[in-house]
Amino acid sequence: MQNNFDFIGATDKPALVAFSTPEWLETTKTALAELGYKVHTAATHTDFLIRFSQVSYRVVILEELFAANDLSENLTLQALQNMPMSQRRHATIILLGSSFQTFTPLQAFQQSVHAVINSSELFLLKQLIEKAVADNLFFLHSFREAQRQAYSGAAKNEVAA
Description:
Blueprint: E1 13-18, H1 22-34, E2 37-42, H2 45-54, E3 59-63, H3 75-82, H4 85-88, E4 92-97, H5 105-110, E5 115-118, H6 125-160
Parallel strand pairs: 1-2, 1-3, 3-4, 4-5
């Protein structure tokens, strides 16, 4: 297990990937790098959970068979599914595999992720990542705006007191 982390600056966009298929991993890392993300790779389930708990990743891309023989054995996906939303809201989580139909909302909902992508569409991965991130940011915009206003209102009350 490797715990060496690159320094993450305030302007960096960190991404975490977890793949068992080397070709998919390289394609994903290339797409994320082209989009300006600083990519970290998890080698095991434990490595993934340690990294995820220590860095607020903007994008997480997980292979459906990451260190597993089938989807039900993917311990990383199970951990993400059981994690409270407050611990994973910062990331757009994308599940990639051959058993999904790209951007099918019901399949994404069933897997507790933001988007699913079929591996046959890896040639479009850069655009699909952009779309998933944009959709998630749009979905959470009202929540984040209300949260920002609540924080700024609380800060004003503290200054006044």
